[in-house]
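hey can u check if this looks right to u? its 87 residues, i copy pasted from the old doc so theres a chance i mangled smth
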Amino acid sequence: MKLKIKKGSTVKVIAGSDKGKTGSVLEVYPKTMRIKVQGVRIQTNLDKKENQLVKTEGTIHYSNVQLVESKSTPKAKAKKKTASKTA
């Protein structure tokens, strides 16, 4: 299934613990239908090499987000009104 959400698009979370947050899409995983959104589902992991805590974004299912603005979709242009000729 092809996802309409692309990398770089702006989305709003509509379900889950991060409901209401907006962010840009960092990565898309089409096989599992999951995406990684900036600032959403923050996970804390221990970096064993440097012995520090590292915060990273986790993945969420694409059905839990709503597309706000697409990177690939051009903005709509305003149409000019033309004067109609009446005889």
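The chain has a mean pLDDT of 87.
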